[in-house]
# Entry
Amino acid sequence: MDGKQLKNSILQWAIQGKLVPQNPKDEPAQKLLERIAASRNAGDSRHSERSEESSKGSKKTSLRGAKATKQSKALSSRIYRENGVWYEQVGSATPKDITDEIPFEIPETWAWCRIGDIFYHTSGKQQSSSNKKGSPQKFITTSNLYWGRFVLDNVKVMNFTDEEIKSCSATKGDLLVCEGGAGYGRSAIWNEDYDICLQNHIHRLRPCVNGICEYVYYFIYLLKETNRLVSVGTAMPGLSANRLKGLILPLPPLAEQKRIVAKLEQVLPLAEEYGAAQKQLDKLNKELPEALKKSILQEAIQGKLVPQNPKDEPAQKLLERIVASRNGDVSPWSGAIGSSKNSKKTLSTSLRGAKATKQSKNPPSRIYRENGVWYEQVGTATPKDITDEIPFEIPESWAWCRLGNCSDYAASKEKAKSFNDIQEMWSLDLEDIEKNSGRIVKRLKVSERKIVGEKVIFKKGQVLYSKLRPYLKKILVAPEDGVCSSEIVPFSPFECLDASYLVTVLKSPHVDYTINLVTYGVKMPRVGTDSMLNLLIPIPPLAEQKRIVAKLEQLFKVL
# Structure
């Protein structure tokens, strides 16, 4: 149960007589209704008395009394039960069966009534700038009325005649209800020591007896929160005067209303606190798995996820073999990809052989530490201090390497020459990849989708990296051959890197932060090739890379 549900449950208990105990000494609600009906039928409104108290010596006093007398002529209804059937009798008319309108049982000391039977109702004046009659008066609109409060820093001014001031204003203790718009039903009690004029979209409910507004306010609030305050209209929903006055109300004895309101004021703030705490907990529950994944990925690429094994061949040895391979013009990609012999042959010959020879002429870099300082030496050039570029410590058996020196990221990509030749191939677009996880959410063949622009061929086992909006981390190891959008870069790690481990590095918070610092373009940010080639990759021994990948798979299944 969330905070809103708890709050609504408390309010529901309140209006069903389950929140506070009944007191047999309380005057039954039916007696209260009879007194109100007698008072209204006699034209003796307590409202005129209240007006005299609040506005002694004012001309408004007698006129408000007259307004109340005029309203008291409206026929009131009497709701009662006989032989298990609920009836409503309006004036001397024939009683009508309203059993279907009675939503629940109430205590014996309570009674059912219409809101219009215990309040004097009126609305404010229609807003018009052309009306020059009367004098300028401050008035409130629906934009000033909120649940349980008023915002009065933007009160408007309009001309009101003396008669309009008398009939279209609120005095202390009136319950005001919003009539129209998305906020219909919003209610608050006017408790200021001065009167205020009203716009016509505000209902004024002036209580026939003191002390009933607070309970009725909570009743209206519950109806709105639980979608039981039925509106009229679709484009502009509203709560008409007839609907408002016709709301059927479970009315407790006056003394019990006060006990209910006091208890609500005590417990509802606690429900609000519970709701806020529940929202925070829900937020944590939603964010925690992703936060844990980020933390785990960062631990993984810093050598803190699995223990090191002194028997593993150090990563530096792997890198030295690659350098030797490149210097000897021997393709360094053999054995880098996968499980398919055909894939190996294709990748090492037709797609990469020529490029490998070309790339081998570019001197690779060697990153090493000496006397606590990190250096990078490119070919035979003088080593350069790059300590400031090293983001964190790594184990002794690990090594740093630029992505351009441990993968073929910069190698030219084979393009599909004819769409007719690839109709049955898998066609991968960015929208097919789930953000963060890299999971494939949709798989279509070339023949099943409209092809726009050139398509790049990729092979099973290659890393697929989205250079467009890299913060979405749409990165994965290709599960099979296919073609992809040019915004996806297929590339292969050299034999020093496991493809799945490289995906782990590229998804890590460190790389995510680094890459997003160097993207270009505002609406469609991309990462450039040079930025990717210069990216520092922490490389563990190959055996440890596989242990890291296996551990991540185990942990992420739990998350």
Notes: Residues 27-252 form a domain with the Adenine-n6-DNA-methyltransferase TaqI; Chain A, domain 2 fold (CATH 3.90.220.20). The chain has two domains: 27-252, 315-558. The first helix runs from residue 3 to 15. The mean pLDDT is 86.
